[in-house]
From TrEMBL:
This is Tubulin polyglutamylase TTLL6. Residues 400-427 form a coiled coil. Pfam families: TTL (PF03133). Keywords: ATP-binding, Coiled coil, Ligase, Microtubule, Nucleotide-binding. GO terms for biological process: microtubule cytoskeleton organization. The lineage of its organism: Eukaryota, Sar, Alveolata, Ciliophora, Postciliodesmatophora. Residues 1-23 have a biased composition (Basic and acidic residues). One of its GO terms (cellular component) is microtubule. GO terms for molecular function: ATP binding; tubulin binding; tubulin-glutamic acid ligase activity.
């Protein structure tokens, strides 16, 4: 059934390439975009063999090509091979590459079968467009049982790693077979839709422009690939005739009956035709092509949803800070067959569909697919300058921004990039149609949720969660973990002194504490961030004199050993003029020192100036204005999380002098003498 199930035309590396005269004709016929001033986009083509890709970049877009694989100075990298996560992780934020790490979940025959079979078990009414498939030898016993019940069923067998039709055969029985290698076995579609008495399949081009969230485009143009011998029902006498049952180009092009298309305008003749000509033929024959097209769109979206959790997880693990969701894109070639009732069946998904151009029709269609995809991705040299400018700005403001503010900034950048992208794509969509996201966001909600659950179960995440929950019940302290974060500033009417108000984040479970950075996770943090949304409870208590770090909830202090508060009195106000640039200006008080918005930085400066290291593990400081005292309460058995934060790192590395009353008296005495 795999007709093209059978074969990967995508990898037909030995297919004919156009001769020089044909290439020159294509060059002359190729339209050119208006040239832009400034530096050119650099495209790395070291790992692609397709001339249509190189010429589209150099002649149509006017980009500069580089052929050095290890050259890191590029804006877009085009490769015919798959991309490893390490490659994506090393990329700069402005760079783009034409494959997603993890797309093998759909483009390898065995992984496609596994993923769609899992989804079909959960949603059989949705995933009924994929033929019944078995992986042997692992599922050989199930296959033999099924074939014994379905005596007349024909199966198509293809090696797991085959291409160009090698090793593919049709059979009815498996009793006498011993499979030493791995194979993918599918039910054969015995009653395909025929045109001119020939079996055919459709090569449909799909652009995946983003994975988190999904962003999918379908091109209106594609190819219809025909077998070269008239079709008849499979029987013992014709099972071994590949040019009757298989439609892949690599097999049929060598048949004496094969007719090449010699005129791109006459796209409805020959054994390779345009998708639009086939749709026109069906419409003229009285078939409902709009319904067929909608079924194909739903098939594409559902197939990509089955792999979306893996794609998203891999992408965000490599590039967690990309707001545009566009560092990767991919042109997939889906092989679809129509049966006699005009129902579409998915045969294969090709991650690198063949871009050889053996005919003018090939060149026309593949040039449109590639050039319009690159246009949609909005690749320009200005992206590099903008990214570099943002990087420098983030370095300057990094230490002045709280984690909550960083989240808000990131969400704002994502929304802004999304709006900008929507406008660009709407004006430059060309022959593509956006098929996801749809106008109705709830249309695929159930399928997404099922896909996420299936992926979590396959990845063993649910088992890990169950073990963590048991451990929490046995070992979790009764008290609740909290972390304070700056949420804004409040102005006092009396002395116009800035006071910090704190928002307290209550973490009732270990997973919430992990997400808030309070404790370490036993599972990958990226996975937790993507697939375990944390439910947080916020409340404002107007706490004063607290350092922004971990401490215990007041309502549960009695359950944890607490040392008695240490009270240190001072004899005078700190009202004299500062003698050092490290100290506060005139009219500074101890209350100012504790309560002001940058308390940690100011304490740090003063105590370093007096050569007095400070260690705060989990502490509250408060100032009593009546008796001018500083209260220091220390909580035991609580550690500051090991996160990369300059203030926390400084505090963690200091000595343990906080517990020594003599130390504080010495510090305050120095302050008094200096003032």
């Amino acid at each position: 059934m795999i007709d093209h199930q059978l074969v990967n035309e995508e990898e037909s590396s030995k297919t004919q390439s156009p001769d020089k005269s044909e290439e020159s004709e294509n060059d002359n016929a190729m339209p050119k975009r208006p040239k832009k001033k400034g530096k050119k986009v650099i495209m790395n083509v070291a790992l692609t063999k397709y001339q249509v890709v190189k010429k589209t970049a150099s002649k149509f877009f006017g980009w500069k090509l580089t052929k050095k694989e290890d050259d890191e100075n590029w804006d877009i990298f085009w490769t015919d091979a798959s991309v490893e996560p390490e490659k994506l992780a090393r990329m700069k934020i402005y760079q783009k590459i034409n494959h997603f790490p993890g797309m093998y979940a759909l483009t390898r025959k065995n992984h496609l079968a596994k993923n769609l079979n899992r989804m079909r078990k959960q949603l059989p009414e949705v995933y009924n467009y994929y033929p019944k498939t078995w992986l042997v030898p692992a599922e050989l016993s199930d296959l033999r049982l099924y074939s014994s019940k379905e005596k007349n069923q024909v199966f198509i067998v293809k090696p797991e790693a085959s291409c160009q039709g090698r090793g593919i055969f049709l059979t009815k029985k498996f009793d006498d077979f011993s499979f030493d290698d791995r194979y993918v076995v599918q039910e054969y579609i015995k009653q395909p839709f025929l045109i001119d008495g020939l079996k055919f399949d459709l090569r449909i081009y799909v652009l995946v422009a983003g994975c988190d969230p999904l962003r999918i485009y379908l091109h209106k143009e594609g190819l219809g690939r025909f077998a070269t011998e008239p079709y008849s029902q499979p029987n013992a006498s014709n099972l071994a005739k590949p040019c009757m049952h298989l439609t892949n180009y690599a097999i049929n092009k060598n048949n004496e009956n094969f007719v090449f298309n010699e005129n791109e305008e006459d796209d409805g003749v020959g054994h390779k035709r345009s998708l639009t000509s086939i749709m026109k033929y069906l419409e003229d024959s009285g078939h409902n092509t709009e319904k067929l097209w909608n079924e194909i769109k739903a098939m594409i979206v559902n197939t990509l949803i089955a792999a979306q959790p893996m794609l998203s997880h891999t992408y965000r693990a490599c590039q967690p800070d990309d707001p545009s969701n566009s560092m990767c894109f991919e042109i997939l070639g889906l092989d679809v067959m129509l049966d006699s009732t005009l129902k579409p069946w998915l045969l294969e998904v090709n991650h690198s569909p063949s871009f050889t151009t053996d005919s003018p029709l090939d060149w026309k269609i593949k040039f449109e697919v590639i050039s319009q995809a690159l246009t949609l991705m909005n690749i320009s040299y200005s992206n590099r300058k903008t990214a570099e400018s943002k990087r420098k700005k983030s370095i300057l403001t990094r230490s002045l921004t709280t984690s909550q503010e960083k989240k808000e900034i990131k969400q704002h950048e994502i929304r802004r990039a999304q709006r900008k992208r929507d406008i660009w794509e709407q004006n430059n969509i060309g022959g593509y149609t956006k098929i996801y996201p749809t106008a109705n966001p709830k249309e695929y909600e159930k399928i997404f949720e099922t896909s996420r659950q299936v992926y979590e179960e396959w990845a063993g995440y649910k088992k890990v969660n169950k073990k963590e929950e048991k451990a929490q019940e046995l070992n979790r302290p009764k008290s609740q973990l909290m972390r304070t974060k700056a949420s804004g500033f409040q102005k006092k009417e009396t002395d116009c002194q800035n006071q910090r108000s704190m928002s307290i984040i209550m973490c009732n479970t270990e997973s919430e504490a992990i997400a808030e950075g309070l404790v370490r996770s036993s599972t990958p943090c990226v996975y937790n961030r993507l697939y375990s949304p944390v439910k947080r409870t916020y409340k404002n208590e107007g706490l004063q004199s607290n350092f922004p770090m971990v401490h215990l909830d007041k309502s549960h202090q009695s359950e944890v050993p607490v040392r008695q508060s240490l009270i240190i009195e001072t004899s005078s106000q700190n009202n004299k003029k500062s003698q050092s640039p490290c100290r506060k200006p005139q009219n500074s008080t101890i209350e100012d020192l504790i309560n002001e918005s940058k308390a940690i930085e100011n304490l740090k400066k003063r105590l370093i100036y007096y050569n007095s290291p400070l260690k705060i593990q989990s502490v509250q400081l408060s100032h009593n204005s009546e008796d001018n005292s500083v209260n220091i309460s220390e909580f035991q058995d609580l550690q500051i999380p090991k996160i990369k934060c300059p203030q926390i790192e400084y505090i963690r590395k200091q000595s343990n002098n906080l517990r020594n009353p003599a130390y504080w008296k010495k510090v305050l005495t120095r302050l008094e003498k200096q003032n």
